Each structure stands twice: as C-alpha cells, then as structure tokens.
C-alpha cells in the first residue's frame, strides 16, 4: 500500500529528480541533445556549458544531480506551508514567500555556496520582488505585466499536495496564490498542474483520470493544447513511433500555442523585434505542461521512461522533467525512484529531501484534516 507520506515523498523527490535530469541540457533543441549526448538517462550527465568561460556559464555548475530554481522555489513554498499551516493566497506570496526567496539564504547548488534564491532566479521570477517589495502592489495584481512563462507552475507542486484528492480546490488555491507572480496562460498552467497533482494522490488513479482532470479544469489555449498534445501522444503510442517522430509531431502540435519553437535564447538581435513570445493571450499555452502530460500518456505513465523522453525532447528540459516527475511521483510514491538517485540528489544538493517531505506531509495532513472537519460542519446545514 502506498501511504500519503510515500506520495508526498514521491512528489518532492521527483521534482528534484526531473529538475536535475533536465538541467544539464536545458535550452538545447532535441537534435542538439541527440548530437551531443545521444540520449540522457542519468543524473551523472555533464552540463554542456561546464567547460565554457565564465561569461558563458556565469560561474554556475550543473550535472551530477544539481537542481535549479525549480526545486529551490518548491522547497521555499513548502517552508511557507510549514510556517503558516493553512491554505495560501496572493497575500502570502507578497509577504512570506518573498521572504524565502529574497531575504533568507540557503545553499544554492549551482553556486556551490549559500546565497539568496533571488540571486539565482530568472527575471520573471525576480519580478515577484519588484512587484511586492519595490512596487508594494496589491498582491492579487502582482503577476500583471510579467513575462508569461512556466515560472509559477514549476514550483506549484506543494499546493497540489495540500489539496490531495480535491483537484478543483488545488486549482483554485494555485490560481489565488500564483496570481501574485503570473497571469494569463502562465497562471493557468500553475492551476492545472496543481489539480493534476491533487488528482494523482487519489487511490487507484490512472493516467486517463489525470488527463481528464486537466481537461475539465483548464481554460482556453491551455485546454486546447492539452487535448491536442495528449491526443497526438495516444496516436503516436498506437503507432509505436520512434523518438524522432514523437518529438517532431508533438513540437508541430504545440507550435500553434507556443510560437517560440527552438528559439528560446534571448539575444541582442531579438531586442525590439515584435513577437507573441511570452505575451498574454487566451489562445496560447506554455509548452511544458501539455508536453509533460503528452509524454506521460505516450508511456502509459511509466515513471523513468516518461521523464527521460520529456527531458530529451529539448527546450525547457528541467521544467518538463519537474512536471512529469511531480505528477508521477504523486501517483507512485518514493518507491518509484531508485535509492541511488535519492542519495545523489541529497548529497549533491546538500538537501535532506526525505526529511523535508516528511515534515511537509505532516503539515499537509493537518491542513487536509481541518478541511474535512469543516466539511462535516457544513453537512449540518442541510
């Protein structure tokens, strides 16, 4: 029997695993990964920038299980729950979450020393500091004007966990919290991923159940992208397509909803050139979540195969790995992950991920039990 604690462990560990597997090849195209590595299936993968000069790799380190900001911000959100012991909203983003990322030092594996998480963050995540601390915004309007990306979805796993078994509540809380950081389809993806994770905690859940949950709650371009990508994945699975055909097909389908394609780098040549990249839209979707669900469908929920296929497809490889890992880790628990991978993740990143998960499982259980007691009280109204 897979316990609630097992599932929380699985979710937390799998965020780190998917992150660390995808990190060394992030922003490479599918073909570049294939040419440089063949196929990545190990945490002990050398970062393609490791031997580059400091002006290129910025003095950072990846590979050998090192995680990125996806895991650091997930852990930061867990810390907020451990402190508050209740459901959260945008006001907690603007008060407590910002303290975790911008005022309290922690070990940053890519820096190999202690620093503030914000020193590691990309601009749309630094935007949280700009809006809530510098601009002193109304917290629920914090995400307005930000670059639309997967930045909120990548750390939203804890919200799915504190709403385990209640996808709609997970969706709602994720939206209420992440609106302090993101808007448009970037915000929508956070809500849908949280819902998928909440559904994954249900005993006997199937991949189809999770996809149905995503489709039932998602809106606009996100919903259409999930439908199209998972439908394409089913057809590819039935054809027993090879990876070349899988990636070509899935990328051609997502192109309708995400116009950047392999052009994910920010270079001087792109400055001032108008485009739809990262702009609000009811017709667009981030790539990572629909692709994550597609690779889960393609592999019928097989744990490592789904993550490996996802990260090897290219582009935002670490966040794709995080989302696949979070969903499947919630389904299968920590038993799905090899002990060797757990040990390497904990030692390399100087994180006691199992202890973090266990502490969070206790808090999440308390929050859920309080919800259940409230539901019992509500029944008395009728």
From TrEMBL:
Entry annotated with the keyword Manganese: no
GO terms, molecular function: hydrolase activity; metal ion binding
Residue ranges the record marks as coiled coil: none
Cofactor (UniProt): Mg(2+)
Binding of Mg(2+), residues: 68-70, 316, 318-319
Record's protein name: ADP-ribosylglycohydrolase family protein
SUPFAM superfamilies: ADP-ribosylglycohydrolase
Pfam families referenced in this protein's UniProt entry, alphabetically: ADP_ribosyl_GH (PF03747)
Cofactor mode of binding and number, as noted: Binds 2 magnesium ions per subunit.
Keywords: Hydrolase, Magnesium, Metal-binding
Entry annotated with the keyword Metal-binding: yes
Organism domain of life: Bacteria
């Amino acid at each position: 029997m897979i316990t609630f604690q097992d599932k929380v462990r699985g979710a937390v560990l799998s965020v780190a695993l998917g992150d660390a597997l995808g990190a060394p090849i992030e922003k490479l195209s599918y073909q570049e990964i294939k040419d440089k590595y063949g196929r990545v299936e190990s945490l002990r993968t050398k970062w393609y920038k490791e031997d580059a000069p400091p002006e290129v790799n910025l003095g950072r380190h990846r590979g050998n299980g090192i995680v990125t900001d996806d895991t650091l911000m997930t852990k930061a959100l867990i810390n907020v729950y451990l402190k508050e012991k209740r459901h959260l909203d945008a006001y907690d983003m603007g008060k407590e979450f910002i303290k975790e990322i911008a005022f309290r030092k922690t070990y940053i594996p890519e820096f190999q020393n202690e620093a503030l998480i914000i020193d590691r963050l990309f601009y749309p995540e630094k935007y949280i500091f700009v809006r809530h601390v510098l601009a002193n915004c109304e917290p629920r309007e914090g995400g307005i004007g930000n670059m639309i990306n997967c930045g909120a979805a990548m750390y939203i796993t804890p919200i799915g966990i504190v709403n385990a078994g209640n996808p709609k509540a997970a969706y709602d809380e994720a939206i209420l919290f992440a609106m302090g950081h993101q808007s448009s389809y970037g915000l929508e993806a956070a809500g849908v991923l949280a819902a998928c994770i909440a559904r994954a905690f249900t005993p006997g859940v199937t991949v189809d159940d999770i996809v149905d949950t995503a489709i039932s709650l998602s809106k606009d371009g996100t919903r259409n992208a999930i439908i199209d990508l998972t439908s394409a994945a089913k057809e590819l699975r039935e054809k027993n397509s090879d990876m070349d055909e899988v990636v070509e097909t899935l990328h051609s389908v997502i192109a309708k909803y995400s116009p950047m394609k392999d052009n994910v780098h920010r270079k001087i040549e792109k400055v001032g050139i108008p485009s739809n990249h990262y702009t609000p839209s009811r017709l667009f979707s981030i790539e990572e979540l629909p692709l994550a669900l597609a690779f889960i469908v393609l592999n019928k929920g097989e744990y490592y195969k789904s993550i490996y296929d996802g990260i090897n497809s290219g582009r935002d490889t670490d966040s794709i790995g995080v989302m696949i890992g979070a969903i499947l880790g919630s389904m299968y628990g920590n038993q799905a992950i090899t002990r060797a991978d757990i040990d390497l993740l904990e030692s390399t990143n100087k994180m006691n991920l199992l202890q973090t998960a266990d502490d969070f499982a206790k808090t999440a259980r308390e929050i859920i039990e309080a919800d259940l007691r409230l539901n019992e009280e509500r029944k008395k109204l009728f």
